[in-house]
Amino acid sequence: MVAFTGVILAMASNVIRDPRLPDHKRLDQRGPLREIISKTFRSTRRWVAHRRRLDRKPIIKERVREVIKEVPVERVVRHEVPIEILKKEIVHVPLYTNDPKLLKTGVEANNIDNLPDDDAP
Fold first, then answer.
1. 118, 98 in Cβ contact below 8 A?
2. Which residues contact 97 (CB under 8 A, 6 or more apart)?
């Protein structure tokens, strides 16, 4: 890469030294009127190109509009509806009895069989 750069620099120096190339300093000395006309023409051409570029761009305008519109909405009314709730519970209902066989009153089990019945004659 460095060797290639050296070759390019050598060729460029030969082009700069070439006597057949016009000298830009001599061209500017041809006349101040011609220089003014050329500068004016270049600036006009740049201005026209700039204006064409601006005219081609889209114009975007942002508008803020407030639109107030009433929309009819059905009113939501809540009604309390009674619901019957059934709960299942197991309830112990004691029955009244005087039967010593059903009552556990501290009498031993073998004595319970020997007790007289109240209903017996």
1. yes
2. 103
Range among 31-35, 71-75, 109-113 with highest mean pLDDT value: 71-75
| pLDDT of 23 | 65
Helices (H), the chain: 2-17, 24-28, 32-56, 109-112
Give the integer Cα–Cα distance in Å for 41 and 47: 10
Structural domain of residue 42, as residue ranges? 30-54
| Number of domains forming the structure of the chain | 1
pLDDT of residue 114: 57
Q: Is the pLDDT of residue 111 over 60?
A: no
Q: Is 88 part of a structural domain of the chain?
A: no
pLDDT tens digits along 1-12: 778 898 888 888
| CA–CA gap between residue 35 and residue 41 (Å, rounded) | 10
d(CA 106, CA 35): 140
| SS3 (DSSP) at 31 | coil
